[in-house]
Amino acid sequence: MTTKKTMRKRPKQYLKNLFKHAGMGAIILTAFYLTGFWFTQFAYNSQAAQEKVSVMSAPQSNTGSPYRVGDIKVVNFILKPKNADKDISGFKITLMKEGTLDIVGIREPSVYPNTGENQDVIFTPVWTRAHTVTYVISDPNNKKLPHAIRIPVEIQGTAKGEGKLRLNKNQSSVVGNIAGSKYEFDNVEEGVYKFK
Known about the structure:
Elements: H1 4-9, H2 11-50, E1 52-58, E2 72-81, E3 90-99, E4 101-106, E5 110-111, E6 122-128, E7 132-138, E8 149-157, E9 161-167, E10 173-175, E11 184-188, E12 191-195
Parallel strand pairs: 1-11
Antiparallel strand pairs: 1-2, 2-8, 3-7, 3-9, 3-10, 4-8, 5-8, 6-7, 9-12
Keywords: Membrane, Transmembrane, Transmembrane helix
């Protein structure tokens, strides 16, 4: 039986045991936390991998009527989930250019198609640059979020020839209406434009 006298003689031993057990407890709690975090991330990413979003260019090409060098033209990228009952609550897109095409800027996005049903949807810019934009989408009246988004892009020819405009999939993302539901890009069209 431990007496007060024994406890006075061996305080270092008790402190050592106390710290040892506290350290083990901290390690166990950390392990539980990391396991839970990993499982949550894995579950969200598994769900997200099942949902896909298409990226369409409109027009995809202007081969029949080339744009004049120096004129600013507007082409559109349309983001649309494959599943008809999925919506978009935010996105970040980064565009890449090639050839004689230059990106002048990216205009404010809108609901696609614009049928007037989603007039209360608010597009809030988070980050805006010439080649990259990030937007959060909300509806103050808690109605349905848009199923598809139109993003107008201003382009310009720097010289005669051909240019390409495409989405950088590695630096872009589209988020659904459920927390953690990040879409996977599928069927990403690139725009090919001629300049004269």
